[in-house]
Each structure stands twice: as structure tokens, then as C-alpha cells.
Amino acid sequence: MKRLTKKQISNLAFLAVLVLIVFTPLGKQVKIYLNRWIAFSPSVESVEDRAMLSAKDYQWKLQDENGNVVDFSSFKGKVVLINFWATWCPPCIAEMPELQELYNSYKGNVVFLFVSQEEISTIVSFKGKYEYDFPVYQYLTSLPETLDHGSIPTTFLINKNGYVVIEKTGAAAWNSDSVHETIDTLLNN
């Protein structure tokens, strides 16, 4: 029987670690940690590049975790943060502690919409496990065109005039000084 070379052994070890990361719960935790480690504060869109929500975009209907129907148009004229996420998504999980802290700082002044299409029981269980208390919604009507996103997490920060000031796909450091400064500016204008 032929003995394995050092290179073959290192390749097998690398493959074993890769399988561990991709296919096991330990891998999910590694992905969450890596996403937190590489997350940075999201960038503000330049004024000329900002998308504006249309009247049709405001016709969006949502349902909160208690079954109440919410009309997105009721948030017109307010600063709104919308986060599209899922409990199974490592980058989503990675940014949740920062989003919870941001929510704690601005609840009552900023409208927070954490939007997921998962079962409410799954979401409530996830929130309980991590002691999150931010509001979660599901959409009942089609996603507004301006907020249509290709992946999760995707987060939008919208000013009082309906312009998208921040659009970020992927995990981000949401409780950063720059995000606080941006929100404070939006609240004071």
C-alpha cells in the first residue's frame, strides 16, 4: 500500500475543513463570525444616485408578527429602515446584534421594518433565542420595484422625502458612528 505524501495529507485536511465549514452547524457559526469580522459601515448614496420611492411603491402591504396588516404608505414622511433577512442566512444573523442596537437607539424616531418571508413561529423562536425585540413583518403584496433586491440581507435607509439614502446588500456594521450621524441628519431635516 502506497503512503500518502505530505501534500496529499494537507489537501485532505483542507478538504475536511472545507466540508466541515460548508456542511455542518459549526460551519454556519464560522460563516457568522467571518461576516461580523469583515462587516463595515454602509456607504451613503450620493444625492444624484439616490432612488426615490414612487407612489406605487407606497402601496405595499405588510403583516406584522401579531397578524396586523400595515400599509407602507402610513410611513410616508418618516425616516424608515427596511431590512430583508432570514433566520437561516449567516450574513443576516451576523448583522442582527448591530441592527438590534440601532433599533434600541432610534425606536420611536425611525420606522424599522425587519422583513422576512419565513413562518412567524420560526421568526418568533429566533427572536426569543437571541432576545431581539425589533418588529418583524411579512409582505402581503408584491415587493415595491424600488426595493426589489436580489439577495439577503439587503437593507434600505429611506429619508422623509422617500429617497433611498443607503442601500446595502450583505452584512454591515449598522451601529457605527457614521450610520448614527446619517440618521441624526435625516431626523433633523
TrEMBL record:
Residues 51-188 form the Thioredoxin domain. Gene3D superfamilies: Glutaredoxin. Pfam families: Redoxin. CDD domains: TlpA_like_family. InterPro entries: Redoxin, Thioredoxin-like_sf, Thioredoxin_domain, Thioredoxin_ResA/DsbE_sf. It comes from the Bacteria. One of its GO terms (molecular function) is oxidoreductase activity. This is Thioredoxin domain-containing protein. It comes from Neptunitalea chrysea.
